[in-house]
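Typical record is below.
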Amino acid sequence: MANPINKLIADRVQIECEMFRRGIFGFITRSEHGHHAKQEEALRILTDDTHTEFLYGGAAGGAKSWTGCTWLAFMSLCYPGTKWFIGREELKRLRESTLITFFKVCAQYGIVRDQDFKYNGQDHYIQFTNGSRIDLLDLRYLPSDPLYERYGSVEYTGGWIEEGGEVNFGAYDTLKTRIGRHLNDKYGILRKLFISCNPKKNWMHSTFYKPAKTGTLPPYRIYLAALVQDNPFIEKDYIEALKSTTDKVKKERLLKGNWDYDDNPNALCSHDDIREIFYPKIHARTGIKYITADIARFGSDRARILVWDGWAIIEQVSFDRSATTEIAACIESLAAKHRIPRYRIIADEDGVGGGVVDMCRIGGFVNNSQCLNGENFSNLQTQCGYKLADKINSFAMSFDCELSEDQKDEITEELEQLQTWNVDNDRKLFLKPKDEIKQDIGRSPDWRDALLMRVWFDYNQIRPLSKEDLGL
């Protein structure tokens, strides 16, 4: 004879599933502590027919994980045979944190482990008795699999990237192509990629937060801020602990949800110091002018050409896609306009940049070449990156030309990627590699590269040969 308690629980779950299908979320977002309106709004977005990519977060303690677990548990119960995923940078942390929250959610709503679902700890998935399944994915970046081809043939109904600040752009870019491919048409379910996060200056900032702030977010994407103050169920001591921290960056990020701050201990420049470069500084000009140029090597890269007066940028030109002949012609034109001799012009010589160097007969910057003056850096690019950071931190450089707000944000984001690397290596100083930067922000740091080349001239004060030098 069936246990009447189990039948009561099963009937309750069935009723709640029907409420969930109809978009009635009050049973989830209400308790004796109050009504979690922000969580209810998030669940409406997760079940709407409009948005396919949803970023939810912005501070600590906003019940983001509880929301994600609730969504996947009820979607799995409501739509038999569907397939979902939860991905995090480390599978171990997913099991030790997110999975525990999932079990708590199920217990809260009467979804019984080993009756309604089972967890396979060997292959890391949750199997429901109705055929639905949730895979737990390890989203670490592997040099042997930079494009995440290990997930390139898997088909999902939808999925969730947990702690998006830990996950690189390649994982997001691949997984969004794997959803909407398993029983979506049968049930009329729109594909959904849910991303929960705390503020982080990576691809989430440029792809979701910044466009949402400026009103340019595509209609299929949406960002919803979730602050600790939005959660009526949070312990009061947790909020007080955030308020009492003396770490300004942590308080700005985790309490106030400020995306413009980052707490990377390896950063060579602070956000505030970087933003100072957009205020003109008279002392940055010396009357001696230079040109630095970073030449696009791939379709997604941009060519950046900067004209300097001392350490002030007085003109900039950007090319999305152009032939090397056009870039060379632009450099020649700028040199003539500002009366800059060839020995004070330098361009990135790696890749196709070598063609520009040859055409213009200018200096070539080889990123991986030896550093100058025998200093303790791994290569020339690293040396110039550290010295550029010194200039920024001492307020010795500035942009004295017109820039759009988007360009300022791009420059800020790329200069925040000036970070020390291999910090345990006590022999030479390293700079965060370009491949790592691309994984974090989803593009090449073209502004950064054009800026750091200016340092080369501080080590090489080239002047034309005088008559005395020539013995005349």
